Structure formats: structure tokens, C-alpha cells
Amino acid sequence: MLDFMAIFVRRGKEILSARGKNASKLDPVDQAAILEIGDNDSVEVSIGEQSIAPPAALAPAGRAARLWPPKAQSLRLIALVLVILLAALISVAVLQRSKTPTIDQLRRQAGWSDLHSLEVGVFGDVPGLSECPSSRECTGFDVEIAKLVADWLGVRRQDVHFDEVIPENRERMLGTDFTTREAVDLDLVVAAFSITSQRTNDDKVVFAGPYLTTQTTVLTRTDHAPVESLPALDQPIAGQHGSSRPQRICAPGTSTSSDYLRADVKHAELVALQKNSECVKRLLDKQVDAVVTDAAVLAGFQAAHPTQLRLNNIASTTDEHWGIGLGQDFTHDPKIEARRQLVLLALNDLLAQPKTEGWYSAFKKLPATAAPTSGNDVQVVADDQQPVPWGVKPVRRWPWERSGGGSGR
Amino acid sequence: MTPGPPPRTVLTVERRPPSGERAWLLSLLPGFPLLLLVLRVWYLSRQDLQTMLMVLQSANPLGLIASLLISLIWALPAMVLSLRVLFLLLLVSGASSESWLARAGIRTPIWVSVPAVLLAALSWQLRFLPTLLMITLVIIGLEARNRFGAGDFATAATGIAVPVAVGVLALIWLAPAIAQAATSAGEPITALLLLVPPLAAPPLCGPIPARTARWLLPGTASLLALAAPILLGNSYLNTPVLPRVAITFTTTTTQNGRSVPVTAVQRGSLVSVDDQFTTLLDSLGQVHFISGKSITSQALCSTGPQAPTSTVSVHGWQVEQSALSWAAPGPRNTSADPTCRGD
Questions:
Q1: Are A160 and A146 in contact (CB under 8 A)?
Q2: I need a surface site. Which of A61, A250, B128, B158 has the fewest CB within 10 A?
Q3: Does domain A106-211+319-355+387-402 have CATH number 3.40.190.10?
Q4: Residues of B in contact with A394 (CB under 8 A)
């Protein structure tokens, strides 16, 4: 209690000194009592029965004089308010952040806690991307990416089952066993599946990616005139007996390239087939004049028939970002979102691996560039850098799990 | 006329009439942890009274109190020190106040801050230690100002020189981590937590305008007191109070009309074990009684320390580790038992 009293008296003394009054009159403490210390440094002190009020002349001149220059007390007040606000803000942020899941929690949400095998949909008919003589013997870039993700998820490579998926079934995650031809529900689709706003927003397809950036291009026979842009396919081609006819262009149905063709090519005959390999077969059989789809898909066919086929370097088109499909989600299913985060984390961890391993060793399965090319430029098959995955959310991890490439377990 | 002795005046802090004896309120104190414990068990049994009674039958009160202590040990110094700072600011600002903050502050002995600071230094994560440093410096500065007055050397030293010097040293030590948090790690909150407190200590070691102090400081203290139960409750209700195990046992299933033995795994909180049955409470609040004869193996699903959310470390000290956990043996770099996965 004395402490409190002393502070009142000292405060009164301080203020009186500042006002030019003789403060010594206030000693000793037990002879004085501060009755009131007002808001504007006004002080009322009683000594004995006398009451001393501060002279009016010593009161602050006006409001403006009090505001500037700012007093130390005002500055302190600003600092205190800022600290209190910051403390509240940081407390909320730290609490929010403490809800960050661990990888095990994500696995539980994803229903992948006891994951021992994965059903992965691939094309299976594209050289360099996914060639599957049987479910167990697939090779190619997409296959390697699926195995890297499976590795991260703790699934042994021999327990990754590959099934055939055709472009139009990718969204529905419906595959076919390469050997038995039975229908299979897929866990992942790694099949040149471009992430587009139409697919993500309208069709509600959930993607984890991108894992490759490529572009749409045109594959023709070597006897075809070089193609430098998609609209160039509008030009009629010389038919039999000197007549001319519209070009026949093949594209896999429900692919992004068929959308581009419909937009840019008005006078050609479009042939939509289910599989890339069927289009290329027709091209080799001269039933169609060109195949239009992603360069990374066509490059393998061109490399397999270098004297018969040419990959044309067409004028720059929009980038195609390939993602791993996880199915359609119309109800914001936390299970699918958790799966997406896990696959994204797997791809993200590949970024930290050395340039001779992981993604880069998978990339070597793709033909690097396609030759011969039209003109002097080389048609680049795909970006030779692993793209940074989109939408990776933070997870709780130990430093040794974070060093990159570590198993999710 | 001879002047009489000067009248003695007693300064009364609170104007309200003296209240009656309130010592009996102290007897309610042990009730608070008890209330928390009951809530925790109720939460664990998914609000089912029968399950709750069963859990209470075999729950170990010591275990419950231990989990309460471990999960809330950081909170006690946080409350004590924050209220002390607010009270001292109120005091040196010369704001006469009837608030509970002033009454509680006057009744709290000064020495309480010392064990509170020590406990916080051991139990708070590194990222909050700059805040603890700020609070400690401000308390020292304000206590000195309160004791020795504004013009005293000790006040100037503890109010300006010491906070500035210590703040500069702290910032030099923390600089690499602040840079890491702000740039490569992309954690602005961690950067703020490390940067702001050393800067904020010197400006806070003095009075603020009395008129504002009168409502701002008790108001902040009240908000803090209101928010504390929410923060603590959230933290406490998520603390496990029973050990989590995975039990592998043999059971039978019917295949083609025939009974076939299969191996199954049940995960959950271990409620009790006797010579007949092992009782488990799963995460959905279902109780499972597993016959002791059918059990083939049992694994403790050690959660271990939780992995950090931040990637920032200060000279090798991860910012989410407390001094205690930093000094204690580290977590095992091994995954949990395979049967513990799932749930």
C-alpha cells in the first residue's frame, strides 16, 4: 500500500517540479496526501488542511500544443497499443498454424494409412511416356513419375499396378487391366492429363501438379509440307488426280488439343479417336494427314519412326501443364483434398533431389528433342526443369523428413 | 494558538467499502483443475455418460493431472507475467484505478515474477523467448521506476540502457534466423516474433498517459483473462489422457458359410486390462472388449513430440523447441509401429 501511496506523492512532486512549484513542501510522505492527479497532469495536493491547485497559467496552452511535439508518454502509448494488437494477431496466427496437419494425419484423412498398393492409370501405348506390354512391365516418363509418387507414399514399386486409361475416362478414374481387360477403379491417373480451368472449375477434376510443362504440336509424315501454325492446317492438301481436299487431322477425343483445333482450324476434317496410337497408326497408313496433341506425347512416336514422321515446330501455343488426376470432387471431399496434398508433397519433395535422380532420371525416358524438324528450330518436347507444384500447403515435419525425397512415412 | 500535529492521511486505493471475509474462495481453487479433468474425460468418452463412468472407473487421477500439468505448464507464467506488466504500467502511469488489475497487482508479491520468468524460460518455445525477454526487461524497468522514481540513475539504467543493450545483443543473435524466416522460409509470423520484442522493450519501460491507462490496461487484462480459458481449453482437450495402443488379435469371420480365423488390429485408448478382457476406447467413442486369449501382440502408439510447423532455427535451435525439450534427449528418428497406422 505504501508503494502505491509513494507513487502518488512522487507523481505529484514530479508534476509540481515541472510546473515550477516548490516540491519540497510535500516531504515527508505522511504529512501529505495526493487527493487527485488529474488527466492533464493537473494535481491537487493537500498539506494539512490546505489545498493547493496548480496555477492556471501553468496549464498547457492548448490542445495543439499538447499534440506536438509528441510526448514520450504518447509515443509509449502508441508502442503499447501496437504491441497489444500484434500480440493478438500473432496469437491467432500461431493457433491457426498449430492446426497444420502431419503427414500421418493427411494419410488418415486420405484413407491411405494402410496403403500397400496403388492402381495407376496410364495410356500404355505412347513410346517414352508409358508403354505397357503388361500391367507389370510399364516403362516411360509417366510410369516413372507414378513410381516416384508411390515410393514417397510408401508403396513398393512392384506393388504399383498400371492400368490402361483412355483420354475420355481420365476424369472418371476408370481404367482397364492390360492383361485381363477388366474394369479397374484407379487411385491416380498419370496420363498426359493437362490441368485446365475448364477441367478444374467445370468438371471438378482434382489435380496434383504440374509435373511437366509441354506444348501442343503437330505430327505429320515427312512428305507433308512443314506446318508452322495450327491455322496452317486449314490449307487444302493435294489429293489424288491433282485435285485438292481438306486436310484430315486426328486428335484424341476430350484432349485439350482437340479444343484448340476446333477453335483455330475451320476448314479441315477433324477425326477424333480414343487413343493416341490409333491416330499415329492412321497417320502412318496415310488415312489422316496430321496428328495434333502434346509434344511430349508425339515425340515418342516420332522417335520410333524417325524417317516417316516429323514433329513440326509450330508457332508458340499455350503451355500445357500436366497434372496427376485424383478424380472428380463435387462435394469438397476432405479425403480427395488430403490425397491431393500428399501427391503434391511427393512432387514437391522431388524438387529437392539432385539433378541426376528423381524427376530428372524420369525425364530422360522422354525423347529430348524431336528431329528432323521443320525450319531451323528444334521442337522442344517439354521443359527440362521440374515445374513447382501448385497449392502445396505446409505440413508438420521433422527436419530429417524435410531434407527432400524422404518417404512420407 | 499552537499548531497541532499534521493530520495523517491514509491513501485508499479502492473506494468501495471493505468486503467481507473471502478466504473461503480459496477452497474453490482445486475445483478448477477438477472441472477441467471432468470435461476432458467427458470429451474423451464422446459425451456418453456410461462410457465416461467406465473411463473414470479405471482412469488414474495422477495421469490426468500429469497431462493437465504438461499441457498447461507454459500458460501459468504467461498469465502471471502479462498481468504484472499491465499492473506495473498502470502503477507508474499514476492512474488511480479501482479495477481488479490494480487490486490483484497490489496483492501479488514481487518475487512471484522470478519463478514465473524461470519457468517460462524453460517451458516456452524459442520463438516466444524474445517476448519473455521483453516482458522481463519491462518488468525490471518498471519496478525500478516505481521504486526509485523517474530521475534516478537506476531507473535510467534499467529503463533505457539495459533494454537497448540487451535488445541489440538479442537482435545480433537472432539476426540469421530473422532473415531466414523472412526470406527463404517464408514465415512472416516467426520473423515478427523474433524481431519485434527486442525492439519493443525500451519504449515500454515508462508511464503512458494516465487517462488512457485507466481503461486500456484493465481492459486488456480482462480480455486476456477471458481469452485464456478458450486457449487453454483448446490445448488441454486435445491432450491424450489414456495411452494409445494397437492390439493385434485373432477373430473369426464367416466365408462361404464357414468360420475362418483372421487376424485383426484394433487401435484405441487403453482403458483397462484384466485377466479376461482388454478394454479399448476407439477414436469414435466406441468401447471394445477384446478377449485376452485372442491377443497376439500389442503395441504402444507413441505419438512422440509433435513435428514442428516451422523450418526456422536459431544457431541449430529449432524455434518451436523449448529449452527443456532442446536439452532433453531428442525424439526417435523412427516411424511408429505399423499396426498403429490407420484409425
A1: yes
A2: A61
A3: yes
A4: 309
Structural domain of residue B51, as residue ranges? 31-237
Contact A76 B207 (CB under 8 A): yes
List the single residue in B with minimal CA-CA distance to A409. Answer: B335
Q: Using alpha carbons only, what angle is made at residue B56 by residues B50 and B57, rounded to the nearest 5 degrees?
A: 90
One domain, residues B60 and B158: yes
Model ipTM value:
0.78
H helices present in A216-293, as ranges: 256-264, 276-284
- The reply to whether B257 falls in a domain is yes
* A402 contact residues in B (CB cutoff 8 A): 311
C-beta atoms of A93 and B210 within 8 A:
no
The string of pLDDT tens digits covering residues B48-59 is 888 888 888 877
DSSP B72-129: HTTHHHHHHHHHHHHHHHHHHTT----SHHHHHHHHS-GGGHHHHHHHHHHHSBGGGH
- 100-159 in chain A: CB under 8 A from chain B: 100, 102, 104, 107-108, 113-114
CATH superfamily of the domain spanning A215-312:
Periplasmic binding protein-like II (3.40.190.10)
CA angle B199, B205, B210 (to 5 degrees): 125
Looking at this protein, which amino acid is placed at residue B118? L
Residue A104's closest CA among B335, B332, B27?
B335
